[in-house]
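To start, an entry.
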Amino acid sequence: MKAIEFRLPKEFDKSFIVFNEKGSHFPCPWHYHPEFEFVLVNRSTGKRMVGDHIGYFEAGDLVLMGPELPHVWVNDNIYLENKHHEAADATVIHFTSDFIGQDIFRIPEFSSLIEILNLSSRGIHIKGKESKSIADIMNNMIFESGLKRLASIFEIFDIICSMRDYDLLASPNFNTNKTSVNSRHSKINNYILRNYHKPITLKEVADEANMATTTFCNFFKEQYRMTFVEYVTQIRIGHFCKLISEDDKSILEAAYICGFNSIANFNRQFKKIKGMSPSEFKRTVDVN
């Protein structure tokens, strides 16, 4: 399933895009684009695909996605067949990293926002009270203009910088077209991405980060919210899903390319992370 590039027209007097999508269903196919995107579902239910993540959405669902991350929202049949008494409804924001200037994201006040935007390369499902607050702002932005509209997106940025209730959707290695800050995180990620297809030890990565192994383990669990082994497994599965989605490779061939030496272990880990078997995932992406 090849994603297509999809671009929205930008108004000449506005630095970023806010629009309301309303109709019997959401028409956009499996696609990607160079902008960051917030998608808020006001009304409708269905299946959400973000990178190699497959989940379900309902009213109130809010996701932030980074540039080039393929995605699609597929409505349930009652919407696709135009049998629901209410239209599907979503509010969407598109913005680029330089939408108000080349250097704005380099100022110190934006350091925490940069970390969140880097995470959005995997897709962020925003939950809890932050989701409700952002939803109210986004729906009001449809009717705003000028500085009020600009102030609203900065209000959203402020909320996401301190949020704690969220899930990362796609596997770490599914989408590699992302901007990363020059930090210890970058060194760790880059080393893993260069070596995930072969055996990789804790000590190797700890040395790369200039940390003792025990210190590295504690740092990794705190920063990544999972163990090092779990993270490497997710990266391998993310690359597998990318190969299966875009290349004509068998499940067995793709699994070995991604560093799995035991097909039994691969099947077990895949189902644990994705909630389905590799063959079920392949059938899903082939259909969509």
